[in-house]
Each structure stands twice: as structure tokens, then as C-alpha cells.
Amino acid sequence: MxxxxxxxxxxxxxxxxLATSAKSQDQEIAPAPTMRVGDSWVFESTTQKGASxxxxxxxxxxxxxxxxTTMLVGVKTDGAPTGYVDHLAGLDWxxxxxxxxxxxxxxxxxxxxxxxxxxxxxDYVDSLRxxxxxxxxxxxxxxxxxxxxxxxxxxTFRALKVVSDGVxxxxxxxxxxxxxxxxxxxxxxxxxxxTRRGGSQxxxxxxxxxxxxxxxxxxxxxxxxxxxxxxxxxxxxxxQVLMSYKLAD
Length: 249
Hints:
CATH class: Mainly Beta
Number of domains: 1
Strand order of the largest sheet: 4-3-2-1-14-13-12-9-8-7
Distance between the termini: 58 Å
Strand content: over 45%
């Protein structure tokens, strides 16, 4: 039996093809990047602390060395009198730290290969003393939300959005304090001094991050990081956007 191709049938086929194409793009996998010496990116970083402290700077980031599982990444503030400060990072942009003679992952913004729906987490204790901070217990969960177009000063890109939410519990040293006072009596005034012993205080902060990774650039083009106190008041907000880039290959 002969069937005529009707306009409605054509439109239905087109709609099905577009839906299939969109679904295929949404499930596209981002492979692990192949890092090269000379890959470089320039970011504008904006930081706000509380309601009053605000500053911006330009960060130059460049790959100086690539090994089997790690890379040496130089970071320099634009206009700084000193050169690049080198940081050892994983080839997946993970951050690492030596603790007790063993290497720990302290941040893993990406887990390759990545696709929408993927999740992973980190849980570690930073036992290094940093000023008044004695230690810090960090827990964070990451989730790949999906692909979307994003525009930054370097251009418009198809990016894979990753969201992270977590908790940081820092133990801080509380210094000993002396409290002085004066009491009066019929025999005159008497000075009193009371010493309060020091100790430690646990400060909990909620963390939130959004990262937009572009596979062909081997890096994110935008990242937002925030910290909140126990009353859900934002303490810190930092945003980085890509200004320019240059890839070695």
C-alpha cells in the first residue's frame, strides 16, 4: 500500500531528530585533558569578604611541567614584582597535600571522564597549622549538572557545569586572656586580675562552588566559590572568569 509523506510526518521526523541530537549532546562525555607545557590561561578574580572588603586582580596560570600523574602549575598575579609561584596539581586539576608522609587529595573539582549525573566526594582532615587554625575537617560532594552555553570575556563556550556543596569544620586556638578589675571597700580600692585559660574553638562553615568546565580549553572558564556561617550569612564570595587563553598544541 502506498503512503504519501505528509507535512505533519516530516515535522514529526524533524522534531524526533532534534530531540535525539539534544539528548546525545546532553549525555556527551568530557574526557580527561591532555596537558602540555605552555598551556596557559588568564583569569580575572573578584573576591568579597563580608559586606565591606572587596578586591579584584588578574591571575596568570601556566603549565610548567607535566609528569605521569601530576603537573607543575605556575600562578602569578598580573603586575606582581615576583615571578610565578609553582603549585603541584593532579592532571585532573586535583589539589594534593602531604600529611603524615602520605599524599591526600584535598580538592577534586573534576572526575574524568565526566558526564551529566556523575557524583563524587572528598573527606579529609587538614592537620597543618595555619595561623590560629589548628586543623580543618573538610567534606564536600560534587555533582555534574549538565551542559550549557556560558559567556565570559574570553568568548562563548559549551561548558559542563559541576556543583559542589560541603562543610568545613576548623579548630582554632583561643589565646589565654587576663581580665583586670577594681573593687572598692572601706579600706580602699583593691585590684583584681583573673586569668582565663586558652583552648580551642570549633568553627563550622558551609561551602558552595559552581564550576564550568570546557573540554577543548582543558580548564574551567568560570568558577564561583562561597562560604557561609552557622546563620547562613555569606562570609566569602570569590568569582574567577576566563579573560584569555593559549594552548600549546
